[in-house]
Amino acid sequence: MTQKVAAQGGKGGIQWDDGSEHDAVTKIQVGAGGLGIQYVKFDYMKNGQVEEGPRHGVKGRSIAADPFVINHPEEHLVSVEGWYNPEGVIQGLKFISNKKTSDVIGYDDGTQFTLQSQDKKIIGFHGFAGDHVHSIGAYFAPLTSIPLTPAKKLPALGADLGTAWDDGAYDGVKKVYVGQAQDGISVVKFVYDKGTEDVVGAEHGTSTLLGFEEFEVDADDYIIEVHVTYDKIFGHESDLITSITFYTLKGKTSPPYGLVTENKFVLKEQNGGKLLGFHGRAGDVLYALGGYFAATITPLTPAKKLPAVGGDGGAAWDDGAYAGVKKVYVGQAQDGISVVKFVYDKGAEEITGEEHGNSTLLGFEEFALDYPSEYITSVEGTYDKIFGSDSEVVTMLRFKTNKQISAPFGIEAGTPFELKEEGYKIVGFHGKVDELLHKFGVHVLPITN
């Protein structure tokens, strides 16, 4: 059932409405001028065809931001953040999908608002516009799974030795077991999801005294890529598989099982297709590996943005949401927190966020997590009004994980606060800062492991 969320801002100009008879938003174009947002324009998907929406507002001398493109159907628009001034003109807009976040277009100044509905996607927009965009609202529809498509069998790559094996295709892969030998991968075994039951596949290869290493996929996640290395090892007549690494849609990554060598291939399907099963060749070691994939995208729960707490000074910043947080860096000044920086996990890569604030001679203090088994569950802090500052500043931060509590960074003084959502983990940060940190907030995702 479609939900109409009221337009936020003023009612200048004329009313416009793109309607709610769309399947998704596919492209967003925005022009900003000196007094705020001058126009918006949206492209939609309907019955498999792109429909180009009209422009709302005027181009004038506006500067057009880069289009924000949404790759339907695996990506959908989750929310819109915006700001409007007392005259009822939209000053700035930011768009968030289930995979990425746009820059702020215009100014993050004035009254802030958010268009969002839990577990729903945006399929249309409405509002008021004249010489500028005065307000914007949205239509939301429930997230729905994309119909299953037949499994696609990707060929097994490696050497044509040993005996061929084939587990077939299931609803997904729940667990992976990999056994190593001195020279490479000696054996693999997989647990598959088949409706309400688990199917334990046979062992392929030869077990050794080293046993198995296990990688478990979260219930609301699935494997989208398998990176495999292979090489010619002394004593063997051909190449053999030397390492395997697994990547999931939500950014969870296994360690590389085995020894990573130079020759490499990747098992994956376009658009983040779901891994459904394995096949390959094995003897005393694993010689080749292939997979079954489906281009079926199960909508994932988007990250929630919890409001920032503290004073209203400084400029807004937002790192967005990732798979998790790996490291926290906090720098202090005489009167409060002066700078923060975070290292995030994004699937196969590590993302070092920007420094927010001003570094001092005191440098940074570091809090490192035992990622991925450790994650931040809450942030405690205090904020206070200090001499020489027009608004409160954050004076202390302390991070709690599922395993430990960090030392307090700063001096615990002023109004206490806690940022947390029961059953969720913290996967990103945002706030306001100038020479000191004025406000601090978090992005959270459900804990699934």
UniProtKB/TrEMBL annotation:
Pfam families recorded for this chain? Jacalin
Q: Which CDD domains does the record cross-reference, listed alphabetically?
A: Jacalin (cd09612)
> Taxonomically, which superkingdom?
Eukaryota
Could you tell me which residue ranges the Jacalin-type lectin domain spans? 2-142, 151-295, 303-446
Does the record carry Phosphoprotein as a key word?
no
**What Gene Ontology molecular-function terms does this entry list?**
carbohydrate binding
* Keyword entries, A-Z: Lectin
Q: Does the keyword Transmembrane apply?
A: no
Recorded hits in SUPFAM superfamilies, A to Z, give:
Mannose-binding lectins (SSF51101)
Chain segments annotated as coiled-coil in the UniProt record: none
Cited InterPro entries:
Jacalin-like_lectin_dom, Jacalin-like_lectin_dom_plant, Jacalin-like_lectin_dom_sf
| UniProt similarity note | Belongs to the jacalin lectin family.
- For this entry, the protein name equals Jacalin-type lectin domain-containing protein
